[in-house]
Amino acid sequence: MMHALEVSGLTVRYGERLDALKDVNLSVAEGQCVAVVGPNGGGKSTLLKAVLGLCPVAAGKILVYGKPFDPKTRLVGYVPQYGTMERSFPITVTEVVESGAVKGGLHPFSFHTDRSAALGCLEKVGLRDLGNRLVGELSGGQFQRLLIARCLAIQPKMLLLDEPTSSVDPQNREHIYRLLDGFRKEGMTIVLVTHDVEAVQGRVDRSIRLDGRVLDD
């Protein structure tokens, strides 16, 4: 079975001495759904950013489908933490999906030429009827589903999600988990950072405990 993600000897260092991650080794097989769990400050978000090339790597190797990550391949979709996203910008829901732009240099999705594809992505997450709304008018759960739709626009093989249910109500939380269940059945590889350990039981193939290093895999 091909590995969608291979991380070996990964060390991420902020400053001269503070290691956010040290000698991390893990792999995720193609089509697996894996939860990354652990305490605050344990390096879970840093791991996703390292995979995407969004933070400095002091040592180690990261391979995505056997090669170093290249955003131009559009293999990976990334859903960042809710609190890191700006919602006051005057852009509509459909335009967000069309743009497909993720801070940090991930590949852009061209405007206007892919309107029907954007609407199809909104349909998948249950937001097609809200396509003309400004993003600032969405609820927290709707906005989170919009971020997922934006990732779907590039048709990724792997989806990285950083605490996708941390700022949503129970109804939208369940909606998001059902979406991920569907992606998993379609064969998409999913790496999910979460504190919601009980909720993901039975919905993931395995969990990886991370606290600066891999404690349990």
Please sum up the structure shown.
The protein has 217 residues and is α/β, with parallel strands linked by helices. The protein has helices at 44-51, 93-99, 115-124, 140-152, 170-185, 197-200; strands at residues 3-14, 18-29, 33-37, 59-64, 76-79, 158-162, 189-193, 206-210, 214-216.
Question: Notable features of this structure?
Answer:
single chain, 217 residues, alpha/beta, three-stranded antiparallel sheet, 27% helix, globular
What is the helix fraction of residues, given as a range? 25-40%
Beta content? 25-35%
CATH topology: Rossmann fold
Main sheet: strand order = 5-6-7-3-8-9
CATH superfamily: P-loop containing nucleotide triphosphate hydrolases
Number of helices: 6
N- to C-terminal separation?
18 Å
CATH architectural label: 3-Layer(aba) Sandwich
The SSE string, one letter per element, is EEEHEEHHHEHEHEE
Overall number of strands? 9
Q: Summarize the biggest pleated sheet.
A: 6 strands, mixed
Structural class of the helices, strands and pairings?
alpha/beta
The average pLDDT value, as a whole number, equals 87
Shape category: globular
Q: Please state the CA-atom Rg, rounded to the nearest Å.
A: 17 Å
Highest-level CATH class: Alpha Beta
